[in-house]
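Box 3.1 A note on notation
Throughout this textbook, protein chains are presented in two layers. The first layer is the amino acid sequence; the second is a token string describing backbone geometry. Keep the layers aligned when reading.
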Amino acid sequence: MRMLRLAGALALSIFIAAPVSAQTPATKVAPAATSAPAAKPAAAALLDINSATKAELDKLPQIGPARADAIIKGRPYKGKDDLINKKIIPQNAYDAIKDKIIAKQK
């Protein structure tokens, strides 16, 4: 008789647990949108070293007022790596800003 009670209790726990696991897939949140659209705003946020103001350049990491002046005096730039080639800023400063700048041609 005891085995019958245990079997009944086991069957009841399986029955109770089954709806919870069946509901889990229905409550999942849809996956987030792809990150491709997020790439465009990042590209739009690039600062053009050929036209940026001193205040805009000064906001870049490791670029203060003196380096901003040097960047402005060294214009025009054919590419952003001209900051290194023309010895306008040191390599560590360039490494800190290279993903935030662009050198557009007129």
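The two ends are 92 Å apart (CA to CA). The beta strands are 47-48, 101-102.
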